[in-house]
């Protein structure tokens, strides 16, 4: 690994961690959990693979929005929204399995149709379909706050990458 690669690796790590700290502090200030698991892979894409379409703001914002829509739609279409939350209850129901399969399938299909591929959004849809996040408007606002913040700060990280070739 070249010295420049090592230097960027350190900067990318520190910048990614800093973005998570900022989102976490904003969430603490707001009293809401703005920090959730699928933001980690999002900032990773932005810091490590800035030229990939999946790292761009359109893909980040639209991908997560589609993941939320697909997660909610699957839960309500299959009447699984009142099933126990899989991770906290330690119970996996048939309704949650079906809703997750439908939600992930819809997320992929919608992202491909809108040219908004963003793999971390599949984790967002699963957080909803498996019951990790409640299917309500408060959740939509929390996800929107976290995603918008990571998209804005992550765009700065993308622009700082020394080997970035794409244009905004």
From TrEMBL:
Sequence ranges assigned to domain HPP transmembrane region in this UniProt record: 5-155
Keyword hit for Transmembrane: yes
Family matches, as InterPro entries: HPP, TM_HPP
Keyword match Thylakoid: no
Pfam families reported for this sequence: TM_HPP (PF04982)
Keywords: Membrane, Transmembrane, Transmembrane helix
Transmembrane segments: 12-31, 61-78, 90-114, 137-160
PANTHER family: TRANSMEMBRANE PROTEIN DDB_G0269096-RELATED
Protein name (Swiss-Prot/TrEMBL): HPP transmembrane region domain-containing protein
Lineage summary: Bacteria, Pseudomonadati, Pseudomonadota, Alphaproteobacteria, Rhodobacterales
């Amino acid at each position: 690994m070249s010295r420049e690669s090592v230097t960027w690796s350190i900067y990318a790590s520190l910048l990614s961690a800093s973005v998570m700290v900022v989102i976490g502090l904003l969430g603490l200030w707001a009293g809401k959990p703005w920090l959730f698991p699928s933001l980690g892979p999002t900032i990773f894409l932005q810091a490590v693979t800035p030229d990939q379409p999946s790292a761009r703001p359109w893909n980040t914002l639209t991908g997560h929005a589609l993941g939320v829509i697909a997660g909610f739609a699957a839960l309500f279409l299959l009447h699984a929204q009142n099933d126990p939350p899989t991770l906290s209850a330690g119970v996996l129901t048939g309704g949650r399995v079906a809703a997750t399969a439908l939600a992930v399938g819809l997320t992929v299909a919608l992202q491909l149709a809108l040219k908004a591929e963003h793999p971390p959004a599949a984790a967002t849809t699963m957080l909803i379909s498996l019951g990790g996040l409640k299917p309500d408007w408060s959740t939509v606002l929390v996800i929107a706050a976290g995603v918008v913040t990571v998209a804005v700060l992550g765009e700065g990280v993308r622009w700082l990458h020394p080997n970035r070739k794409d244009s905004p």
